[in-house]
Design brief:
This protein is of the alpha/beta class and 125 residues long. 40% of the residues lie in helices and 17% in strands.
Length: 125
């Protein structure tokens, strides 16, 4: 199984990846504009990740760089995907995203395709 969460669901993706009992049930997890509001705890969970993670953040989301750095230091470093859409705002790929705006629509398509590619790669192993 794979898990993809939006906003608070992205925090759950990180928790799943670090959990001794839950992680083995999944091949990968990820979050789009993940609500990572516990910098210290999020970095600790990232360092303990036991499966590939995907994070696609908005420009006004919490700084993902410390989490990314912790992921890169782990044994799965080449399997994680972390990207910030600097010109998007939190919620752009969910209910808040105005798909009539071509810039937002393009970012949504990019995020969804990146997610599909990430999970296809994880499920192929």
């Amino acid at each position: 199984f794979g898990y993809l969460g939006f906003c608070w669901g992205g925090k759950i993706a990180l928790a799943i990846a670090a959990d001794e009992e839950l992680a083995p049930r999944f091949v990968a997890s990820g979050g789009i504009h993940a609500s990572l509001k516990d910098p210290e705890g999020d970095v600790q969970r990232a360092a303990a990740a036991k499966l590939p993670l995907l994070f696609l953040q908005a420009g006004n989301d919490e700084d993902i760089r410390p989490v990314h750095k912790a992921l890169q230091a782990g044994p799965l470093s080449g399997k994680h995907v972390v990207r910030t859409y600097h010109d998007m705002v939190h919620g752009w790929a969910g209910a808040r995203g105005d798909r009539s705006n071509t810039r937002i629509a393009a970012a949504v398509r990019s995020a969804l395709q990146t997610s599909v590619d990430f999970f296809l790669e994880a499920l192929s192993h």
